[in-house]
Amino acid sequence: EALPFAIGGPSEFVLEEHKPTDGGPKRIIVKDFKTVDGVAENFGVLLGDHLVFINGVSVGAGCRWIGERIVPSLDEVINMMASKDSYPIGLTFARPKHQSQQRMASYFISSPKQDDAFVMNNAETICVTAEKYEQLGCILENKNNTTDVIVTDFQAVPGPFQAQMKPHRDSSTRKFHLSIESINGQFVPGYATSQIVRNAMQRSWKSDNRVEVLFCDDERKEWVRSLQ
User: Which of 44, 55, 62, 214 has the maximum number of C-beta atoms within 10 A of its C-beta?
Assistant: First the structure.
C-alpha cells in the first residue's frame, strides 16, 4: 500500500553548474544529496510518544495495557524493527489525548516512573507504516528505568533518489561523476541553471509523483574522448 505522502523528491539533489575547460556547453552536475524527514515524523509522531505495538505485537506500555507480564527489552524492540522479516511494518504509537507536544514530551521524558493513568481508553494512537527500517527516522529509548519505549529524537533519512544513486558514488572520492542529460525526455539546454533544472524536476514530481532523469557519466565520457 502506498504511503499517504511522498518521502523526499527532487529537493534531495544538490546540483552545481560546471563549465568545461574545453569550451563545451555548461553542465549541471550532481554534487551530493540532502537527507529528508523520516516516515515517523511525516506521519505525525511527536517527541514523547510511546511505541506500543509492532505488527500487532505489544511492546512497552502496550504490554501493560493488555496485561503482558513479559515485556521486550529495548534491544529486542529495536531488533524487531530492524529485522527484514518485519517489513512491510506497522507501528502503533500512542499519547494521552489533548496533550500538547511540549507538555507531553516533557512529561514522558522526565517522569520518574511509569504513568499508570496512561491507559488505552485515554490514548490517541498514530499508526505508521514503512517498507524499510531505514525510512523510519525515529530514535527510541527507555527512560528512568521503565520499560516504556519512548520517542526521544528524530533523524533525517536518505530519500529515494539518494538511495537509488548510492551505487554510483565513487568509493574513493565519495563524489558523483554524473551530470543531468535530460528530464522526462527533454534534453537540458546549455543555458539552464541549477535552479531551472531543479524546478523542472519539482514540477513533474508534484504533478505526476514521478520524474524520469537521464544522467551522463562525465568521467567515462572524457575517458572515451581520450581514446579518439
Answer: 62
